[in-house]
Amino acid sequence: MSDETAPPLPPLKLRRLAIDAYGEVVAYLPRHSSLYRAADFQALSKVELVAGDKRLVAVLNIVERSDWLAPEEVGVCELGFRLLGLPDGSPVGVVQAPPAKSLDHVRRKIQGHELTRAELGEIIRDIADHRYAKTEIAAFLISSASFLSTEEVLGLTEAMAAAGSRMDWGDGMVVDKHCIGGIPGNRTSMIVVPIVAAHGLTIPKTSSRAITSPAGTADTMEVCARVDLGIEAMREVVKAEKGCLVWGGHVNLSPADDRLIAVERPLMSDTAEQMVASILSKKLAAGSRQIVIDIPVGPSGKVRDRAQAVRLKKLFEYVGDRIGLCLDVVIGDVLQPVGRGIGPALEARDVLKVLSNEADAPADLRDRALLLAGRILEFDPALRGGAGVVRAAELLASGEALEKFLRIVDAQGKPPAAVSLGKLRHEVRAPRDGTVAAIDCFRLSRIARLSGAPSDKGAGIDLMKKLGDTVEQGEPLYRIHACLAADFHFAVGTADEDSGMVIEGTR
Amino acid sequence: MSDETAPPLPPLKLRRLAIDAYGEVVAYLPRHSSLYRAADFQALSKVELVAGDKRLVAVLNIVERSDWLAPEEVGVCELGFRLLGLPDGSPVGVVQAPPAKSLDHVRRKIQGHELTRAELGEIIRDIADHRYAKTEIAAFLISSASFLSTEEVLGLTEAMAAAGSRMDWGDGMVVDKHCIGGIPGNRTSMIVVPIVAAHGLTIPKTSSRAITSPAGTADTMEVCARVDLGIEAMREVVKAEKGCLVWGGHVNLSPADDRLIAVERPLMSDTAEQMVASILSKKLAAGSRQIVIDIPVGPSGKVRDRAQAVRLKKLFEYVGDRIGLCLDVVIGDVLQPVGRGIGPALEARDVLKVLSNEADAPADLRDRALLLAGRILEFDPALRGGAGVVRAAELLASGEALEKFLRIVDAQGKPPAAVSLGKLRHEVRAPRDGTVAAIDCFRLSRIARLSGAPSDKGAGIDLMKKLGDTVEQGEPLYRIHACLAADFHFAVGTADEDSGMVIEGTR
After folding, report:
1. pLDDT of residue B70 exceeding 60
2. Interface subset of B 316-335, CB within 8 angstroms of A
3. Interface predicted TM-score (ipTM) of this complex, two decimals
4. Residue from A165, A262, A107 nearest B133 by CA
5. Which of A155, A195, B277, B501 stands 20 to 30 A from A445 (CA)?
6. Predicted pLDDT at A43
């Protein structure tokens, strides 16, 4: 029926552009492409690159200068280049990227409809497969931030777990712990895992790196050992030592969750429902079945009051029950940073002091770790009810926990670099005589982050005073450590504005 | 109180990078910056560039190769370079960009709260000032897509109008028209404006360019005249001729709306509330007070049924009343494209045929234009009630409208280029004998867009058959025009899949 047949299109040449767009997949077309007109793609601001059976959806940017990108080339950022998996210079076609079909479900969610598990599954698969631009991920996050039914939380959890790798540990009991985060210095996992593993339970712990905080458990553990183990290496460590402390990002347990978090954090949109789906999907994928969930409650934590904590606990329990996870949710008041250090090296120091039973080990970190370890040990049917915390304390006091920790460190391998504390130092001092009446965890996290943590493992804050301590005017409250002049500048400037500590006068 | 003073930071050198990120402001830091560590900024994925009193918030990308960006440089995209307004090589500092304070209001909106006018004002100002990343704009759009109270629509409208330029036409009556869009070929403004101006009313019409459609009125008008006039030039034209047809993007009436639309369209999130605020904010800023709003209703238009149209009408009227606009909202069934052409040059041809009273001028385009012009003329107190459409028809038939159009064209200036119809042509033919039973406006718009419209003004679709026409098998239904091989390829391929026209057998 055609008057003319559409001429076949010669492809463009793929060009790897060394740009990291923080998780966004970006393609670059020259303004004066030999083949396409950039403006034609403007409507959706997305394109699809096609080469044989390989396809890649990307956000489009236009390069104006032809000395950067030749008219017959199409560029992709580092992530896109990796996902496409083709050599530089490969022939690649460019087509309009129709919006992912699952965006129709997102639109229905925006209109207030409840989504089915199948619909949530399609959304999550598209997100995991990098078919959503960040704006589209934001649309999904916000649409589900205002309301998610418990059925939807369940569907989301299962969909996120299904989109990644899945670990299977056979028939034995597999335990785990997870803290919802928000409290600086709360590095209990590095104490709990060796205690539990020393007792003989299997605890394949994966942890996150910090995104907005000054340290994640993976960052702190990396001061002592390698943490970027693949699934097989992780399995070996657990087989030999019963426990591990590795970075979850490398074992790809929930790639959709990793993408959601990358958009969620800058937006600071992190509802109870999203948190439960995020955490439990990773636990489901990691193959753990008995899990202690730690919900610290405090004025500057993620959960501000008991009522909110109880609602969160019930949501965890509801979803956990439905997906076959046995959860023990621990709610505890935490009014200040745990331990004395904030930042990887300083936190690792605290952890080692506790494991080594040193006299000046931070008691609050030890007590929280023993409480949580005890709750996990209670999963062991052989243990007498209520004996968990006693057993945990024994394993710590006897040095068995330290020995286990060192064996795990040894099994995981050497850390990538030796760490020393940041040489740029500044002491923040008490403006008056009095008592430490309040500590703002947000503020201290921000200052520690600005000081360079976790990029510089030796950067952060070392607390010299904690709640209730008496201070004299001019006495140091905490010390800032930094490695880089710019970081030091930002951190000190921010601490000078507001130290994050309230000193009330004694009179 | 400091042990050491924070060392002053030597600034980086600003480097203009010739990249167009489609409305996103992007800054590029070298991975191995001499001064900063890219990873430190990862948490928020945004930075703020600072130079004296100039500040620019930008989404951060990292450039891995130092031969693209030197360690002492910081790159910005074209838009960022323009906004910053500094010469290439200027010293610029980089700091963490704290999230805009107004994002707290967005978060409250997500939680279901109603926002005050002051809060909406802060959000809109930050968006207009390029302080929101696209993900943040998406968050605001989606949070307000699920529910906006009429008070909020009002607040949003006023805030958007206040964020841009404002035109004042003195005491005389200033009329305008606006169509909510969605129907291809519905180019009534180019007929209505000359009729109304010929009658003697002031009608300073600004129009949009197409974003996702094959032509906006500004694109079609640009076939005949220059449309990118600044505010002063527009004022001159209106002073001389009573009317104009210029591109609204150049007169900066609602910069926040321009940014919202850039994110909204790819997400295809465009609720009644957002539409009303978007349209009325621009009218308020343009200084029009009496406005006819055209709501076409049809199965493939933006508004699908009468009930939806009536709700939209009432929302327009409510907000219009509160902000001092006198609105006449016209609801009309439109089941197919208006006129015969889809795409700037083809639509301009239809308009000129109507203005010239040619025998084969599309009757539907003429009738719709006369109806709308008549409703606007009714605003004239000197005109006898009900006489508007008769007067409009007189002005068209007498040639006064054509003369006025040519004078407006002359006043606005020559178009940027002479336009001829795309030379690549393909006729889509009837698969069987029968009658045209349905025409899918979405599909035809998409095909016309793929053919290169509006980038190529000569590209688009020329309809040979419309609803109710009888056709024989093999007879042309429409002709696709394209200028570029790639476009031709996409458009013909899409039309071959599904022509967008349903032919029902006669038997």
Report:
1. yes
2. none
3. 0.82
4. A262
5. A195
6. 62
